[in-house]
Amino acid sequence: MHVLITRAGNALTLDGVNTYIWNLASALSNIGFEVTVCGGYGNGILEAQHYVKTYFGIDFKGNYMALRSNSQNVLFTWSVKGPSLIRELKPDLVHVNGVVPLLSNTPKIATYHGMLNFDTAVSRYKLVLNTIYDRIMYRGFKRILAVSHKAKEEFLKYVWKAHNISVIPPMITWSWPKYTPDREMSLLHRGTYRRKNLRATLLAFSMLRKEVPNVKLWIVGSPTDVKMTANSLGLSLKNIEVFHNISHEELMKLYLGAKVTIFPSFYEAFGYVALESMVCGTPVIASPAVAQELIIPSYNGFIVNPNDPVTIKDYAHKLLTDEELWQLMSRRCRRIARRFSAENVLPNLLSVYMDVLDG
């Protein structure tokens, strides 16, 4: 069976949608499917395979291509080149991520990854236009998958009251790292663009240092963004280390070395940061934006208002200083993360594939 997995934009960008795509592609390849991943734009295949291995931790053995090399006129590119691509490849099924004009009789399903334009910097006018676009485009798919129950509710409320939408969560296919309970007195924050709410983490950390002077903060993201955010708050960067453009292996070492992951994002459809942290046995302090399937409050982490750095600080202090609680939550993190292994998720996805093909 040949599955074509598409991304509206660049299939190599480091984000949650592509994390989903490459884990999906890997899981299907591992059970003998022929898989082709195609982005609206991107790089050549040799660089892509190395890139996916380095930054997503996946040894992808399928095919990769991009319709063009730059990001201009992506929707027009898909409307013109998409149908001819399908005629050329002759896939049995097309699995779309980011709805695009794709006229073809080949069975198609789409995964809804949330309102990707649901960002604090996006104008309401653009949000309305994109929502109208989604309402039109999603009606062309036999089945729609949502990455979480939260995403499904959002889809039904803002996009379309579809009867053919199911919840199939993302999966983890890369090798699980060896667990270690020996951690540094460190917090981890991943993501520095506005939606990831670095501001709350920095404020919480500045207060926490007064109570735990030797605590460190590791930030994965742009050094420029970190400096600008800290300066705007009048905060020092003491005991803060920034990691930029790191590999998947290096990222796992950070998750495995930290005691706590801080994830106060303003919006998530799922929350890969939380899942990756849980795989490494690192409890998460997150906002309610994270999918409820991931974090059970006071069981494997804590849920807190993203605009409440004081409570973030209090929970972090509790996990840093109560070793018995940390050990308990750490074990629970790994246990819950197992629910998102390919072994547990893939059968449900294959069932959807078969229903669509039979239909």
How would you describe what is shown here?
The chain has twelve helices and 13 strands. The chain has 359 residues and is α/β, with parallel strands linked by helices. The chain folds into two domains: 190 residues, Rossmann fold, CATH 3.40.50.2000; 155 residues, Glycogen Phosphorylase B (Rossmann fold), CATH 3.40.50. The strands form two sheets. The protein has a seven-stranded parallel sheet, with helices on both faces. It has a six-stranded parallel sheet with strand order 10-9-8-11-12-13, with helices on both faces. It starts with a strand and ends with a helix. The model has no long low-confidence stretch (mean pLDDT 93).
Report the uncertain regions: none
Name the CATH superfamily assignment of the largest domain. Answer: Glycogen Phosphorylase B
Please state how the strands of the largest beta sheet are arranged side by side: 3-2-1-4-5-6-7
| CATH class categorisation of the largest domain | Alpha Beta
Write down the overall geometry.
globular
Q: What percentage of the residues does DSSP assign to strands (E)?
A: 15-25%
- Label the CATH architecture of the largest domain: 3-Layer(aba) Sandwich
Distance between the termini: 16 Å
Q: Indicate the radius of gyration in whole angstroms.
A: 21 Å
**How many structurally independent domains?**
2
